[in-house]
Amino acid sequence: MTLTAQQYERRLRRGMRGVPGRTRRDLVEELVGGYEVKLQAASTDPSVLAAIDDPKRVGRALRAVHGIGWGWRILHWLLAGVLGVLSTPLLEAWLPAYPGTFFLILLTVLVVRAAALGGRWHGLVTGMAGAVPRILMLFAFAAFMDWVAGHLGPTVAVPEESLTAVVITSLLLPVVGFLAGKRLRRPE
Amino acid sequence: MARTTDATTELRRGALELALLAHLARGAAFGGGLASELSSATDGALDVTEGALYPALHRLEKRGVLGSEWVHPEGGGRRRRYYHLTAAGEARLVELTTAWQQLAAGVDRLLEEG
């Protein structure tokens, strides 16, 4: 099915989501201009349309070359930070139904997604943006528990294994981001 | 299997880079027309899709091997981006041509012996 220039542009933009504004505008103008020329040529030689790929796929390939903008990067880091805090499992000590694991899964998905969009270094930094608040929250919570125990009497004990598990899963996040970026965002 | 696919991709990418540089050495070209020009210049041996062509052009431009400029068509309409070879691109073309000729000669020799 032959796409109209407008349909082509829409799919191309969808594939390039995250690419910085100016770069994206230039790319759209370049590729849609090229597509319009091919559409005109196709009226006499339909074979010219054989070289047309799915514009969404082309957009993704171009995003792999140009990367994503700072706005998206900062958004990923902020979201990772929030999810890092929310995924601290020690909160479950107070709230048994607290979905700490769910937030950790969300955080991991975000790190992988960020790596796929922005590359391995962005994946690594997003992983760190999730890991650092997670570890800080862990130590803050443990210190708070110690303080409560010292002033108000016995409270929820924080097992040593839990601390180790949180630190290990946190440290794995940047590694996952780096490896995912290396694997998923390769030029086509 | 994955290794074979990687090797094929690498080979195609190398051939595309050389073909683009060789074609652009003849003069600047508009990205929208390059795929068909390459196909007809190689008698259909190098059928390049947009998904390979545009990322390759942009990667080469980022590496400084190609340059580009926007041109307004005389009859109006959208601007067009024309790609041209830079000095670094000319040097890269010489380097790739030598490597390609050596490789092709070696493989040809091997095939003739076989």
Task: Write up what this structure looks like.
Chain A has 188 residues and is mainly alpha-helical. Helices cover 76% and strands 0% of the residues of chain A. Chain A is rod-shaped, with a radius of gyration of 23 Å. Chain B has a 3-stranded antiparallel beta sheet. Chains A and B meet through α2 and α3 of A and α2 and α3 of B.
SSE sequence of chain A, one letter per element: HHHHHHHH
Oligomer: heterodimer
As a whole number of angstroms, the C-alpha radius of gyration of chain A is 23 Å
Helix content of chain A: over 70%
**Main β-sheet, spatial strand arrangement of chain B:** 1-3-2
Total beta strands of chain A: 0
Q: Using the alpha-carbon principal axes, give the shape of chain B.
A: elongated
Please state the average pLDDT score of chain B: 87
SS-based structural class of chain B? alpha+beta
SSE succession of chain B: HEHHEEH
Main beta sheet of chain A, described?
none
Class inferred from helices and paired strands of chain A: mainly alpha
Number of contiguous helices of chain B: 4
Low-confidence stretches of chain A: none
The residue fraction in helices of chain B comes out at: 55-70%
First CA to last CA of chain B: what distance? 25 Å
Largest interface: A-B, 29 and 24 residues
How would you sum up the major sheet of chain B? 3 strands, antiparallel
Low-confidence stretches of chain B: none
Distance between the termini of chain A: 24 Å
Cα Rg of chain B: 16 Å
Please outline what is shown here.
The complex is a heterodimer of chains A (188) and B (114). In chain A, 76% of the residues lie in helices and 0% in strands.
Please give the structural blueprint.
The complex is a heterodimer of chains A (188) and B (114).
Chain A lengths: L4 H11 L5 H22 L12 H12 L3 H17 L4 H4 L5 H19 L1 H33 L7 H25 L4
Helix pairs in contact in A: 1-2, 1-3, 4-6, 4-7, 6-7, 6-8, 7-8
Chain B lengths: L1 H23 L4 E2 H11 L8 H13 L3 E6 L8 E6 L1 H27 L1
Antiparallel strand pairs in B: 1-3, 2-3
Helix pairs in contact in B: 1-3
